[in-house]
Amino acid sequence: MYNLSAFPTELKKNIVTALKATVATPVIICSKEQIAYNLHYFLKCFSIRERQVYFPVKVNHDIAVLSFLKKLGVCFEISSAGELEMLKNIQTDPDKIIFSNPVKIQKHIRLAHDYGIKTFAFDSESELLKLSQHAPASDVYLRIAVPNKGAEWKLEHKFGARSQEACRLMKMATDCGLRPVGIAFHVGWNNTLPETFEAAMNIAAQVTTALEEKGIKLNFLNIGGGFPAHGVDQYALLNNISKKIKPQLAIFRIKHGMTIMAEPGSVIMANTAVMLSAVTAVIKRGKKHWIFIDSSIFQGFQWIMGGLKYQLVYPYKTNETVKLLPYNITGPTCDSHDIFAENLMLPETVKAGDFFLVYPAGAYINSAREYNGFGYAGTVVC
Description:
Elements: H1 9-20, E1 27-30, H2 32-46, E2 54-56, H3 63-72, E3 75-78, H4 81-89, E4 97-99, H5 106-115, E5 119-122, H6 125-134, E6 139-143, H7 166-175, E7 179-184, H8 194-213, E8 220-222, H9 234-254, E9 259-261, H10 266-269, E10 273-285, E11 288-293, E12 311-313, E13 324-330, E14 339-347, E15 355-359
Parallel strand pairs: 2-3, 3-4, 5-6, 6-7, 7-8, 8-9, 11-13
Antiparallel strand pairs: 1-10, 10-11, 10-15, 12-15, 13-14
């Protein structure tokens, strides 16, 4: 009855169960087995352990997901006090949390420090001054700027200290009563170029050597996130990236005695979930055919307005003789931007009550609400 060839093995099982059951839509179906598979695949690729993985809460902050990841033994990365509260709700040990937002709100630093978090990122002088005041004697690591070539969304302009600033900033950290313990980088979101990861590793190696020459010995290298998972063969690309940088990782481990850390998010979560949404109407307006479904892009898929593409799968097997028509798939809101896809070729037999599967839905969909743990502004009516 169903054609689910677009989905990974473990997720397929959950989709079949959902389609056969009577479930209220819209709903996101997420597979624990696929999460575990993806995590262990990543660990194997980079020869690291669960304790060295810091899952970014911003990727998926569903409590059931965070609890399962905790059970699997991973640690967590936060960017705000809001995300800290989520981890406190599942009783996460503070020594398994790092605060990796390079530019933090002062109150959030205090709350994290009071909870017992000891490790904070920085990339500027002003951040060091904030940390010395609100998280005294903490461990700090420097986020360095690296190229983002090959990334779907680049981060290189907003964050990251230049490599030539590293020694001065690390010395300032010591002068501020903080303890420099590592360096980190981020190659941008959904980066498919192994050469960019390699270039980032080269810059990190140069910075590490320069710091050692100044008597600053580091404990870890954090290779960040950005591993490709959206709309690509993530397993093949992970293999390519790991083959490219494994020799460099070995040098950090053996020559510099540093632990390797990583912040994989999408590569663990993206393909683990799909949104099941029901067709509410099929309408022809002039020459255009419209399919209305019961979820909006504003309910987690607003990334579409930034240029991202999602698969919309009509999961039913149909006769080859059925005519195909170009459809626009839209949500139920009264906003003209609420378009999931345009000119999608689908059977003319699509009808109200059928289901569509929007994929991938495991990363940045659930957590689009109060993204990064930052809540909506309150309103004062005067």
